[in-house]
Amino acid sequence: MTAVLEWLRNESRPAPTRGELAEAVRLTARTLAATAPGSSVEVRVPPFVAVQCVAGPAHRRGNPPNVVETDPRTWLLLATGMLTVADAVAGGTLKLSGARAGEIEQWLPVT
Description:
The protein is α+β, with helices and mostly antiparallel strands. Helices cover 37% and strands 16% of the residues. It has 4 helices and 4 strands, in the order ααβββααβ. InterPro entries: SCP2_sterol-bd_dom_sf, SCP_3. Residues 18-110 form the Bacterial SCP orthologue domain.
């Protein structure tokens, strides 16, 4: 996470390497999955990770009914508490689909 913090605080700073970005995204998404165990919501941060989390009805096949999808920078801002779910949705950088997708907000930030 330290490799991406300055870039998260100020987008004009040099961007982290792809490897650093991937590691930070995967670590925080997997931390969310560990702290909010379950499989009723799928969190997607392409191209790096997709995790299932939040207790409730399990999803096993086809398109999941509750999906959270965003880009890596937005995800890291959410994961660190530098951005709220409401602001990300309003800004169009976070897409929530399904009645339970918004429940991830209670598990953020993860770091």
